[in-house]
Input
Amino acid sequence: MYGTLADMVGRYGLEEITARSDRANTGELDEAIVSAVLADASSIADGYLRTRYSLPLMEPYPRELTSQVCAIARYLLWQDAASERVETDRDNAMAWLRDVAAGKVNLAIDTPRSLARETDAMIDAPAPAVSDSDMKAFLG
Output
């Protein structure tokens, strides 16, 4: 996940995160719900990131990615009661992800899809001496 409970509380405050995650009305923060919306928001982000980056991304994650994922997770926490500000933040986060996918925004990471991963094999060899058509003619 690209965000944590601490990221959510740091951005939106303990009171809001507790109130929005407390679906059982216990007055307690429900960490499982916060983790679930962060996982969902991270999956949404991955849908855009995989067009340009090899996943999974390695930590530390870019702060701008964490910020956008938290905005989406916050919206998911609010469910159908999201304020205009929460919706605008989510819309801005989605637009940012679309810009990342389109190449208008680059993440400050070293794993763009165009670079070979350390586990990828690279082969540089001369062209074959015998072509497929030559081999078919030979075999009859």
Residues 5-116 form one domain. The radius of gyration is 23 Å. Residues 37 and 73 are 5 Å apart (CA to CA).
